[in-house]
Amino acid sequence: MSKKLKSPNKSESVNNSSNINNQKLIITVLILIIAVLIGFIFQQQAKSNEPVINRELLTEEIRKQVRDEIVKEFTDKDAKVEKNEEQPVPVEKSLDKIEKTEKKIVIEDKKMEDLSSAEINFQNGKTISLDSKKIKLKKEEPNQPQEIKTETPKTKEKQENEKKIFPKEIENFPSVKISKMKTKKMWIPIPNSNGGHRRVPPIEIKFGKEHGSSVKVWLFEEFLSQEESEHLIKAHESHLKELLKQKPIICFDSVSTLKKNLIDLKREKIAQLVTPNDFTTGTTCLNQTFSRQLEKWGLKWSFSTAFYPGESKFSKIFGKRIEEATLLNETHGGKFQITSYPTEVGYKDHTDCVIDSQDQRDRYATFLVYLNELGAEGGGETIFPELGIDVKPRQGRALTWNNMNYETGKCEAKSVHRASPVKHQVKKKYIIQRWYYYKNFYALGKRMPDASLPEREPNTPKVSCDNYDNGSCRMYDEWNPDHMIDYQREKKIY
């Protein structure tokens, strides 16, 4: 008799399926754990064998190869030097040049796994050939503190020149106050007279206006003889002849003065366009082309040549004569300046000292002598509008006055004066003048080196146009630094 099999019920089937799934999950987890452990073991072994990166050696090797490439480049260039050159540049000098110009390099940070096989071999002391595509280099920033700046020959030369121009004597110079001006009668030798003298008394000019200032004006007739006056004119004209072989460069105290002079020349449109950029680098001067154009348009000026104490026998005679007549100390006198005024040229209202200046190294007194005369209608008078004084040129006549109050050391605004334009159609007006300073300073009465700017040909004259409202244009045979922007900014006086 056959037995009938009993089939499993539904709940037993579900339990069996659940057990199988649990077993599979456990096996999977175990496999993952084993894989992680194997990976950890391999990682530890790799770390234990990782080479130490010697970045200093790597940097030095790179620098060496860069250097070798540059040396090769210079060597190749030296080999191509033409035979007619005096001396080819030796390799040693090329190396010196490389030392000065070689750029520093810095290796960027790189992880071990980013290093190429060549780099790893290098770390292990093996010879490699560098691949610029694999090893990234970057130039060190120019403002890195470890970068050493070298002095160029021009920098050293400039420093040496400054030491020569501004020695210690300037800072330590004992500046003292001038003696108060007092005039007295003079007995002046008459040339070729066997010991004869002429009597030259001072004449104090009475003011035409009440002014309430300390300014006083005196005259000395025949302070210079006819022979002396004519000799000075001849020397001036001879020097000008040589000077005018070069066209002058024209400088202005400001772009405003340039604009106003252009308007006077009927060049209004150009005046609207000019800016400080029209001046040459570091100066308030025009270039040669613009300077010549202004001259063609009709800009006019007076002409000045200078000589300094000790440069001639006459400078000693003249300086001593002024000191005896006025008590103005020779130690406080500046250069002797001969000036000629052509037709229609004069000089606008101005003071010889600077109003409201705190610097007492300023022009305390002016001594001026006319070297010729122009006649009744010739113009060229020296006029003091605030004092009511009008003086006509006469050969040998000296005119002297104080610009500053001796007690306070302040510039007297009432000392304002002008040189009237010359009306004579043939003759020029000639004068010689010298300024005496309230307090002296190192460079006073010394011929100093010419200003370095603007760049110019040797013996190029300078035309300086002062403030338009109280000055005019004048040509000089020397280049003081008044037109240099750095000097204007620092207002140095030596």
The rough form would be described as elongated
Record the strand order, biggest sheet: 5-6-14-11-16-9-8-18-17-7
> Helix and strand string, N-terminal first?
HHHEHEHHEEEEHEHHHEHEEEEEEEEEEH
Q: What is the number of helices?
A: 12
Class of secondary structure makeup:
alpha+beta
The total strand number stands at 18
Radius of gyration (CA) equals: 44 Å
Largest sheet: 10 strands, mixed
Overview of this protein structure:
- This protein has a 10-stranded mixed β-sheet with strand order 5-6-14-11-16-9-8-18-17-7. Strands 10-15-12-13 form a 4-stranded antiparallel β-sheet, with no helix packed on it.
- It is of the alpha+beta class and about 500 residues long.
- The chain has 12 helices and 18 strands.
Short note summarizing the structure:
The protein is an alpha+beta fold.
Helix/strand layout:
Layout: H1 10-49, H2 55-79, H3 91-101, E1 105-107, H4 117-123, E2 137-139, H5 153-165, H6 168-171, E3 186-189, E4 197-200, E5 203-204, E6 217-220, H7 226-243, E7 249-252, H8 255-264, H9 268-273, H10 288-297, E8 302-307, H11 313-326, E9 336-341, E10 347-350, E11 363-370, E12 382-384, E13 389-391, E14 398-402, E15 417-419, E16 429-437, E17 462-465, E18 473-476, H12 485-490
Helix pairs in contact: 2-3
